[in-house]
């Protein structure tokens, strides 16, 4: 696959209100405020997917708790809320305090931190989809035994050479002091089912 450098001016904003008593409520509020659709969270006890639907953050633990843990501040390592135009990243710093930042597309005439970018599809594991309630699908990977519940409807069975799920990542580029172009920041912007060839 050929990577093409594209012009995508972006702004980086710190999120200053990180006083979190209920992490799911905080994430839901941020998703609504910044118009973010998807959630991908990593916790000590597993992966949590979610989607903002009608103002509610619906998470994978609500449909398959035996595979997906609930969103809990005690076990959450990091969470990403994202959509085509922006991503909010929540993480813990070295002092175990919450930190968050937003990378979003720059508005016309707005000062920006990054200009050039490359978009990259990351293959998500899962060859054997099992429909779940509420529009989720449990994706299993045969030989690995890996499972995660994604908030998309996936049908069919796929072999290991044609995993259909893609997590799209935008990498922002800058030249360093030596003149080398490097990836300096990345954000998620979409998750979708690709056509299997």
TrEMBL record:
NCBIfam families in the record: CRISPR-associated protein Csx19 (TIGR03984)
Entry protein name: TIGR03984 family CRISPR-associated protein
